[in-house]
Amino acid sequence: MTSAATEQTSTTGNPFLDAIRLPEEKSIPEANSQGLSQEDFFSLLSQQLSMQDPFKPVDNDQMIAQMAAFSTVDGISNLNDEIINLNTVMTSSQALQASGLVGQKVLIPSDTGHLSVEDPVLKGVVSTPEAIEIIVVRIEDDKGQLIKTFEVDGSQGGNVDVSWDGLDKNGDAMPSGNYSIKASGRVDGQSEELAVSTYAHVTSVSLGTASTGSILNLRGIGGIKLGDVLAVSEV
After folding, report:
1. In percent, how much of the chain has pLDDT > 70?
2. End-to-end alpha-carbon separation of the chain, Å?
3. Which of 203, 223, 186 is nearest to 102 (CA)?
4. What is the pLDDT of residue 82?
5. What average pLDDT does the chain have?
6. pLDDT tens-digit profile of 209-223?
7. Residue 125's beta-bridge partner residues?
8. Structural domains of the chain, count
9. Which of 12, 124, 190, 197 has the fewest CB atoms inside 10 Å of its own CB, making it the most exposed?
10. Domain with 217 in it
């Protein structure tokens, strides 16, 4: 009885009425992708051709233009995917090459360096626009307080190497931390601040992203892009 009753509620016995009956249980449609694939395009194109007015057929040039437009969009999409894959490969390759810098020192465009037990001497480079007889170098701590002043010869011009032994003006060793190298000299008869770059110890390499590239992690300084490195040194 139960089976028969169930069958009576689900069918009317009339094939036509059964065909147009609404389903008793609503099914949740699956989410469809909003992207138009090549198969979807040709399916729509076939529908367009089958439903066109025989007396006003679609112009051949119009059909070719539609196909060309879709091919162009599809090609650009595939090209973007290839570029993303290429960027991933290049980023990984760059990180692998940059890993060879771990344990070495790199010259960075900053006047701040890190003094520590492992690096008791702070080294840098002063860039001069012309030959300067005397370059005055000032060492400052992270609070901007003057620690020591000394002079170096800049008569050769160009990039002048400077180094600080970690001692203050009284000969006492300074504690570990970040210190700045400031430099000035007389250019065209006037005192002028000069650009200073410092050496930093590379402790590790981070993979980074396609936009940033590999990141060199420097002892006491932080991270810097591989592309910002000015020079590499073993000192």
Report:
1. 59
2. 95
3. 203
4. 65
5. 78
6. 767 778 899 999 999
7. 161, 197
8. 1
9. 190
10. 104-233
Please provide residue 132's backbone torsions phi and psi, each rounded to the nearest 5 degrees: -125, 125
pLDDT at 181 over 60: yes
Residues 91 and 208 sit within 8 Å (Cβ to Cβ): yes
Letter string b/e over residues 81-100, b meaning 16 or more CB atoms within 10 A of that residue's CB: eeeeeeeeeebeebbeebee
Report the b/e string of 34-56 with b at 16+ CB within 10 A: eeeeeeebeeeeeeeeeeeeeee
Q: Does residue 42 form part of some domain? A: no
DSSP letter string over 8-69?
HHH--S-HHHHHHPPPSSPPPPPPPP-S--HHHHHHHHHHHHHTS-TTSPPPHHHHHHHHHH
Kindly tell me if the per-residue pLDDT of 26 is higher than 80: no
Q: Is residue 112 part of a domain?
A: yes
Sequence letter at residue 158: G
Strand, coil or helix: 200:
strand
Tell me, yes or no, if the pTM score tops 0.70: no
Residue 101's alpha-carbon distances to 90, 112, 229, in angstroms, are 17, 20, 11
Q: Is position 217 within any domain? A: yes
Q: Which CATH number fits the domain that encloses residue 165?
A: 2.60.40.4070
Rounded to a whole number, what is the largest CA-CA distance in the chain?
114
Q: Is residue 223 part of a domain?
A: yes
Does residue 166 sit in helix, strand or coil? coil
Q: Which long-range contacts (CB under 8 A, 24 or more apart) does 138-143 make?
A: 138/181, 138/182, 138/183, 138/184, 139/164, 139/179, 139/180, 139/181, 139/182, 140/179, 140/180, 140/182, 141/174, 141/177, 141/178, 141/179, 141/180, 142/177, 142/178, 142/179, 142/180
